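Q: Sequence in, structure out?
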Amino acid sequence: MVFSNAVPSRLVPDLEAWLSGGGPGVRLRLADTKSTATVHIVDQRLNVHYAIGLTFSGARAQLSKVKSSANRCHFASLVAGPGQLDARLKLIGQRGDLQDPTARSVAATVVAACNGAGGLRALASAPGRHLPPDMRLETARRKSKAAYEGEVEVPGGGSASMRLKVTVKRVEDGEGSHTEVTGTLPDLDAELAELLEAGGGDGSGGVGQRLCDAGWGARALRAVAAFVEAANAVLLGEGEA
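A: Exactly. Output:
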């Protein structure tokens, strides 16, 4: 189960600071961080698209994956006279081996550029300095993710607390940057998986019927409401100070 809400950009730093320690009713800790990037390169001569995945350890980039495939099709129409046959041609770039030497060479060039002066931003701002003449940079997108895990107290929920995971992801590309904040309730995910495995309940009083009741949705709503109320109490309080 995933929940999300709009968070004004000016409040994101305060939200992250609160997530690092939590507060009354919410206990969270930073569980994991990850920084990745995806660079899309087009070989204009062969009409081939390369998707290059990178992971970052500090400021250093490492290749995580590379894929190549035919790029967008090129079309040409031959229009004949009245009553005559028209023709439409479609040109598709082909590669027999998706991990061909060209793909690996392009990936190595991108990694070297990202580990050079200016890093990924330098590659994105001046791709012609780094890429071969026939190569064109389509997009370069970097993502930084921080995952927080802990518990939220659920008033009247029949249990003292419920596990909670919140992910803050920053995305930066040529159009600017934005932040995505999402949350999940792992306990409810496990219950839902159990429910699906039981076939949704057969009316025999088994696992499916036990989970498929009004209380299941109520627990989810109470947990999300408790988290949002706690976050708003902190963020709005700091915003008014």
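Residues 214-240 form the longest helix (27 residues).
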